[in-house]
Specification:
657 residues, 51% helix, 8% strand, DNA_primase_DnaB-bd, zinc ion binding, nucleotidyltransferase, primosome, DNA binding
Length: 657
């Protein structure tokens, strides 16, 4: 079966050979350099202890210096899985989420056709380069010279010129034996709808050849010389060879430079890439006149784990940066991200390098911002957060953005970074409940309301009389839900462990309910940051009310540095008690309803059922008490409670309830 054109290239783009090989070998971390895609391991094809098996992830090949085994990812799967080539393709396509193409008897014919189109584009490159040396290109040469383009640079990037004639390239290529339809199919000429003679797609423009990662010329970009041209920059239209959303200018050379350790820089246009390369930043690429696409982003990550996006400091550049943030968020994963350089307003990399030199560009690259900083800047810059509603709106926007990150671990780290930025913006005033500035020093006791030093969890204190009275008035369930919420605030990492139970807890105390809802919404997993986050929100009074519960100040695992293991054990126990208690309440209520429907002499089975429910409630509330179930059944407390329930049910029956 023949593969359709581009299928294997697309599969190589989506699949990393290091990932394929990594399933079969143990990498030597001392010898490998993952950032450069330079990986070493003991060879899987012969017995050895040294790491002589080398994988070049960027070039997509492996080689063993011991047994001389070599090949690409398809060959590796063939050898290790004992399958044929097509089966290897099927395995890798399934892993990459690519459906296998239908059997196409004309696939080879299409491949041959594309090879012929590539010959046409290569001939066009040579034609345009010759035209740049003619008298008609005098203005274009002057422009390029003014932009700092010397002969070596023109040759390196194969820059040419398309004269302002209607059929210049079309007639030249047809005269060299190229088929007229191939010249049109390659995007070099356009056939009018009225059936007239084809005319050139590029006229009176400086020409930049666009090559794919393999070095084939797949299309062209043209910069207009006329100030009143309809488009300053024009790309080849979509052809069997050229898809501008899946190509990068300077792709191949940039990949090689990145393999030598240079940072991958993403600029906006052709001239920026050329200027960066001239200044020594050879791992530079650019999208082709449009916003960066998902396919282009994946191509960049194949070259480098953390490309640096260098954008103009004008409004258009900032808008492009923000669009890229939204595009990248769902695609992020551990080790794959972006950094951003926003240039001074009114300058692009070419302007900056010509004005201040390569050192100025390097200084900006050294200060490249992580993507989370740009996300925060977008949501906060130029805004005022002087009310709870505005702060809540900010939280909602940030939460929605973070939810787009599919990697749970990465999403948590982003939430931690956002919490840190938020804490700096909304640092509570002196006297508010918050954690120590040092972060996470819970002192030696339970809870303390401070005015600067020693804020947050601090020394255990004797509760005030008013606090003791309030605690005495609370039900056992309120004390239990308070302990659960407080433990989750003290150890936020346990929120993920008990998320389902916390969601179903539904505290009857409104303060506990609001705090529990916040714990389910927040992505903050740092205890100090979480306290500050709550203090900076309308939930601060609810937190103060919770911290007023005296039994929290003497809970061992909340004191001092805390005991996360004991805290987790406690939550398991408290959730179980809460569930049992509520189940017993439901049982007693249903039994009391049934008693109301039986004759006056009562139903022994229902009486037994209610008695058992009371015993269960006592056991749930006193799991370590001295009285067992049988002893409890004989106590005056049990008899009193039991008869009170029966009496209540009987009265309800007599009243027709």
């Amino acid at each position: 079966m023949s593969m359709p054109p581009g299928f294997l290239d697309e599969l190589r783009t989506r699949t990393s050979i290091a990932q394929v090989v990594g399933r079969k070998v143990m990498w030597d971390n001392r010898k490998s350099n993952q950032a450069k895609g330079d990986m070493w391991a003991p060879c899987p094809f012969h017995q050895e202890k040294s790491a002589s098996f080398h994988v070049d992830d960027r070039k997509g090949f492996y080689y063993c210096f011991g047994c001389q085994a070599k090949g690409d990812m398809f060959k590796f799967v063939q050898e290790t899985e004992n399958v044929g080539f097509m089966e290897a393709v099927q395995i890798l396509a399934a892993e990459a989420g690519m459906p296998m193409p239908e059997r196409d008897p004309r696939a080879q014919e299409k491949a041959d056709r594309n090879a012929q189109l590539a010959k046409v584009t290569e001939a066009a490159v040579q034609h345009f380069r010759l035209q740049l040396k003619t008298q008609a290109a005098a203005e274009a040469r002057a422009y390029l010279e003014n932009r700092g383009m010397d002969t070596a640079t023109l040759d390196r990037f194969e820059i040419g010129f398309a004269p302002n004639v209607r059929q210049g390239i079309h007639q030249a290529l047809v005269g060299k034996g190229m088929a007229a339809e191939d010249v049109t199919l390659a995007g070099l000429s356009t056939k009018p709808d009225d059936g007239g003679a084809p005319y050139d797609a590029f006229r009176d423009r400086i020409i930049f050849p666009i090559r794919d990662a393999r070095g084939r010329c797949i299309g062209f970009g043209g910069r207009a010389m006329a100030a009143d041209a309809r488009a300053k920059y024009l790309n080849s239209r979509e052809t069997p060879l050229f898809d501008k959303g899946r190509a990068l200018y300077n792709h191949g050379p940039a990949r090689e430079a990145a393999g030598r350790g240079q940072p991958l820089i993403v600029a906006e246009g052709y001239m920026d890439v050329i200027a960066l390369c001239k200044a020594g930043f050879e791992a530079a690429v650019a999208p082709l006149g449009t916003a960066i696409t998902e396919d282009q982003l994946r191509l960049m990550w194949r070259i480098s784990d953390e490309p640096i996006v260098a954008l103009d400091g004008d409004k258009a550049g900032l808008r492009a940066a923000m669009r890229l943030v939204d595009l990248a968020l769902p695609l992020l994963e551990g080790g794959k991200s972006l950094r951003f350089v926003i240039l001074p307003e009114g300058q692009d990399p070419d302007d900056l390098i010509r004005a201040e030199g390569a050192a100025a560009m390097q200084a900006l690259l050294d200060r490249a911002q992580p993507m989370v900083t740009l996300l925060w800047q977008r949501e906060t810059e130029g805004q005022v957060f002087d009310s709870p509603e505005r702060r809540a709106a900010l939280d909602n926007r940030l939460r929605a953005a973070l939810q787009r990150i599919t990697d749970p671990g990465l999403r948590r780290h982003y939430a931690d970074a956002i919490a840190e930025l938020r804490r700096a913006l909304f640092r509570p005033q002196q006297g508010a409940w918050q954690s120590n500035k040092g972060g996470g020093d819970w002192k030696s006791g339970g809870w303390k309301k401070g005015g600067g030093k020693g804020r947050g969890f601090a020394e255990a204190q004797m509760p005030l009389a008013a606090t003791r009275a309030r605690v005495g008035a609370l039900s056992g369930e309120r004390l239990r839900t308070g302990l659960i919420v407080a433990t989750c605030i003290r150890f936020p990492e346990l929120i993920d462990v008990f998320e389902d139970k916390l969601d179903r807890m539904a505290p009857r105390d409104p303060d506990h309910a609001r705090l529990a809802a916040h714990l389910l919404r927040t992505g903050t997993r740092d205890a100090a940051a979480l306290l500050d986050e709550i203090n900076a929100s309308p939930l601060a009074p609810a937190l103060e009310s919770l911290l007023g519960l005296s039994h929290l100040a003497i809970t061992p695992f909340l004191i001092g540095d805390g005991d996360a293991v004991r805290a987790e054990e406690c939550l398991h126990e408290e959730f179980a008690k809460l569930s049992a208690s509520r189940a017993i309440e439901d049982e007693m209520f249903e039994a009391s309803q049934d008693v109301a429907a039986v004759p006056d002499e009562g139903d022994p089975a229902l009486a037994f059922r209610m008695k058992e429910a009371l015993l269960g409630k006592h056991a749930a509330q006193n799991p370590k008490g001295e009285d067992n179930a049988e002893q409890f059944g004989e106590t005056s407390e049990a008899r009193s409670a039991f008869h009170q329930l029966l009496s209540t049910a009987g009265q309800g029956k007599k009243k027709g309830v």
